[in-house]
Amino acid sequence: MKNLKNGLLALLILQITSAYSLADQPQLIIKHYPFNKSLNMSTVYEVTHLPIEKLVPYIQNKNVDIKIVVSATDRDQKNPFLRNLEKVNTDILPQIEFDEETDGMMISKDNSCCDFNKDTIIVRDNASLYTLIHEFLHSQIRTQNRNGDRIGQTFATNHRTLNFRQQKIFQDSIRLVDSRWRRDLLSASQDYADLLYAKIQESHAEEAIIEKELSRYIDSKSPYFEPKRTKDGLQYGENTVNNAIDLYNYIRQVLIVSKGNVLRFRDEIKNNILLPEYSNDLSEEQAQDFAKQTDQILESLKKAEVEIIKLKEFYSK
Q1: Are residues 139 and 160 located together in one domain of the fold?
Q2: Which of 102, 133, 195, 259 is least crowded, fewest Cβ atoms below 10 Å from its Cβ?
Q3: What global pTM score does this model have?
């Protein structure tokens, strides 16, 4: 009977506890995430429980500025809590990658692009307050060892360069016998790998963390609750995690396949399957050196791999 009572008591406690969500009480902790990120959960609770009319002043009192991008929509479609805020200088929008599909963006005061003296949220005047909260949390996430400047454009350039060279080699893999093609492929792969961790840390990880936490803190009792926005946000977060995995798998596949092809071509040269003159371009020493350099780049990816696995696990819970 004693064991049964204990079991019923445990069940009752579980039921009472499950009746409350994270949205019902403050979490007075600093929560740590993959990619060396952390967030004060007390701030998350506060900003998601404010009366609507107090949201903008709250953000501004946190020393975060808000500027709006004027939309072409009718006045009645604009957010009344945003439309009277200071307008952003539209000349900076291309530089910060604020395109037609972007509703909001947080620019760090350390970013050299804009000479802002505060962290600044740039948001469309018809954006939802849910979006404003999302961008505010970008300003509240703390990241160890992060450069203030965004590296998105540089990484995109590196990605295009690697993809161009990889596609040319894919069309005719015998090009890898030529030392110039091997050199260019290794150079492009190194440039890509050097920024992969920072790219995921800067964008993918933050987007996933924020969307996951907002889905927990903004529930049906919140004035900011938008079921479709929550659903879309969770899907967006999942997509960013999967895209991070794709970015990692892409460079890994390029290196592994290229290494295998170079070693195979060297064996075919030795076995007289390829014309002997190819040996002048791909000696045994050169083939082994290429393999060594690809292994070194692959090894450098392990830091990102570990954090991507952690990010996937966090998001799946």
Answers
A1: no
A2: 102
A3: 0.86
